[in-house]
Amino acid sequence: MSKPTAVQNFSTTAIRTIELSKKIDLINLLPNLSSNEVFSWVRNNQGIVAWGINTKENFTGSERFSRAHRWWKEFVDNSSIRDEVQTSSSGAIAFVSFSYLSENSSVVVVPEIVVGQNNEKTWLTVIGNLDIEKIKSEIYAPREVPKAPSNLTWSDGTISIIDWQKGVKKAVERINNKELDKVVLARDLNAHADENLDSRYLLNKLSDSYPECWTFSVDGLIGATPELLIRRNGDSVLSRVLAGTIKRDESATDSELATTLLQSGKDLDEHEFAVNSVATSLALHCTDMNVPKTPKVLRLANVAHLATDISGTLVDAAPALVLAGSLHPSAAICGTPTGRAKSLIQELEQMDRNRYTGPVGWINSKGDGELGIALRCAEIKENTARLFAGCGIVSGSTPEDELIESNAKFSAMRDALTN
What we know:
By secondary structure, the protein is of the alpha+beta class. The protein has helices spanning 64-77, 132-138, 161-176, 199-209, 254-262, 265-282, 320-327, 338-348, 399-417, and strands spanning 13-20, 38-43, 46-59, 79-83, 93-97, 106-117, 122-127, 153-156, 182-192, 214-218, 221-225, 228-233, 236-247, 286-290, 296-299, 303-314, 335-336, 359-364, 369-373, 377-381, 384-393.
């Protein structure tokens, strides 16, 4: 366990939110900055984008969620907040991206400029000593057109495809030997461009191709996740669980794909493990829970998933970060039982996930927030991208089918990088 982070003594920070007069294309609003200075949590052109860094802090260790919440609470307590809009994502906002494993670094970033939008309002938040009227006057000014990646080259990730498939085969053998019920195995892929990658180009393509997903960018981790780990809005809590996947292609209709998923014992088993893990964790904090008995089918551009929305009423004061910490890692990204799955992942994956499959999203000053699971994403650093994809392995899995599924999941970021 890492040593506790000392509580930081913040100076008073001014935070002001004002309403804007016109709707806006959120992602196209972002300026051309490095990937760790632009932030996004957008779905169907609703949500928030931000840029600039007022302050940030990194956290490691098993207490990283609770210590991050303490750090954020102190920042808020030492802020002067004037919120003229009063929505869940106005006022004091921080973006968060947590690691899969406790020993890796997680980050909380307070941006300088935030623009948000929902069905009713569009707003601007400025954090720190900036001229909000000047920023407001520049919001609707034309932006530089994002630049497509040039001369991309691709290379294998940490392990070869053959070795990854061998790992899938070993995992199935362990499952059939009753050592565990499910394990999620991930792989990575590398891309290299001639010039620095423009985050805005990637975010635009992801948002256009996957409007049903949350297009996110936090500290260089960029993607479009279909899975909502936790949404806390007052005492209302929601989690969207995805597990069980089929590749979409032109040879089958959506209804045929849905029927295949809903009749697949392998996919239904995988989904049930994920739902049970989330429902069990949320039951420690919630009552009046609604856990649908039958999943629905979520259709995306590249794949279709089994999906279940679990809701409940919060009975304690657990903030979004603490709820996320109690849910992570769920069976959807680790396996079950958790301890055995984590051990098998370390043995077979042979790679460092960093913040892939960790909680990612935003939090506010009231303990509310939206955190997804960092899926369909890539680590962007200057002119390189490291892509990730993972598959849930259960008794009926085969190395050939899991490779097809992982390639289908890679296609979200691969297509975003392709001009």
